[in-house]
Amino acid sequence: MSKNLTWFSNQLISWYLQNKRHLPWREMDDPYTIWLSEIILQQTRVAQGLPYFEKFTTHFPTVFDLANASEGEVLKLWQGLGYYSRARNLHFTAKQVAYELDGIFPEDHKGLLKLKGVGDYTASAIASICYQEPTAVVDGNVYRVLSRIFGIQTPINSTQGISEFKKLAQSLIDTSQPGTFNQAIMEFGARFCVPQNPNCNDCIFNIKCVAFHENRVSQLPVKLKKAKVKKEYFNYLVCVSKDEETLLEQRTGKGIWRNLFQFPLIESNKKWNEKSLTNSQEFRAFSEKVNIQSVSIFNDKEIIHKLSHKHLFTTFWILETEDLSNEAIAFSEIHSFPVPVLIENFISNFEPFKK
């Protein structure tokens, strides 16, 4: 690190040592638990991720335990965290480390990048915390801190911005304690240099912060606008038989929620009423396989489930039947299947499925 930039790491680490939260993964330098915590905390707040970290370390205390689990077990434990590709990659990498690397994680940034689901940020975190390799982490918190203090207007989601911020973070890292530095800058961004209304008057960097002095704190970091969020309309067919059974199907393909379970789904290009549903070709094909006696709507107002790239306008339709096929699932078993949180919320609120 350049001598004229040592003020940054010195002040940052001093603040961290006095103010850091005592989190379980900070009490250890085992690459398995650090990797687990970093994957869980991607795009997830600590308060939300902590219970999942505790569940995973309890169920899978070693990488071998995680590798030997079924994908269904992993997805069920992950349920509610979203971005389910993280869970599938987590399971894939556990098997890779356990079966191909004898349970030993790569010991440098370059080697860690070869693991599925491990990008520059996660590799930098593990390498610095576990192996003291001076490679800087750059996540949303780091972008925010650096853009404000140094007054950088380059969009953080541009190729130029990604390169520029990585180089700056690398020039600032304390090479004698890189793991502590990386955790400090993430903690500072998460707890002090927050997105909205940070307490700049009490900030340890306010004397040097460009954004503070130029009154641009709310304008940084800069981010290129994303494409318009798409609207999609989901109609879930919830079968309810007199034998207290229902139907679930497993999602396939490369779309959202791959390998999770859901009720039979019909997608539409707008909100449907009962007539629109029952007159659709998809519903008619479904009714040829299931002897439907009545159709009723569960939620008159659509449930809007927001994803990063699309909003799902969802209606659950209750289909009463005499009996179902051999593939039917008992109401009592429905809670054992890994499902998207959208489905889980419905199951929790629909009286016949309540435990």
From TrEMBL:
Claim: Lipid metabolism is one of the keywords in the record: no
Query: Can the keyword Cell membrane be found in this entry's annotation?
Result: no
Q: What class of enzyme is it?
A: hydrolase
Print the keywords alphabetically.
4Fe-4S, DNA damage, DNA repair, Glycosidase, Hydrolase, Iron, Iron-sulfur, Metal-binding
Q: Which CDD domains match?
A: ENDO3c, NUDIX_DNA_Glycosylase_C-MutY
Q: Which GO terms of the molecular function aspect are on file? A: 4 iron, 4 sulfur cluster binding; 8-oxo-7,8-dihydroguanine DNA N-glycosylase activity; adenine/guanine mispair binding; metal ion binding; oxidized purine DNA binding; purine-specific mismatch base pair DNA N-glycosylase activity
Which cofactors does the annotated protein need, by name?
A: [4Fe-4S] cluster
Q: What InterPro entries does this protein's entry cite? A: A/G_AdeGlyc_MutY, HhH-GPD_domain, HhH_motif, MIG/MutY, MutY_C
Which top-level group of life is the source organism from? Answer: Bacteria
* Record GO biological process: base-excision repair; mismatch repair
Q: Start and end of every HhH-GPD domain?
A: 40-191
| Enzyme Commission number, as recorded | 3.2.2.31
Please write the reaction equations for the catalytic activity of this protein.
Hydrolyzes free adenine bases from 7,8-dihydro-8-oxoguanine:adenine mismatched double-stranded DNA, leaving an apurinic site
Q: Which family does it belong to?
A: Belongs to the Nth/MutY family.
Q: What does this protein do?
A: Adenine glycosylase active on G-A mispairs. MutY also corrects error-prone DNA synthesis past GO lesions which are due to the oxidatively damaged form of guanine: 7,8-dihydro-8-oxoguanine (8-oxo-dGTP).
**Name of the protein described by the UniProt record:** Adenine DNA glycosylase
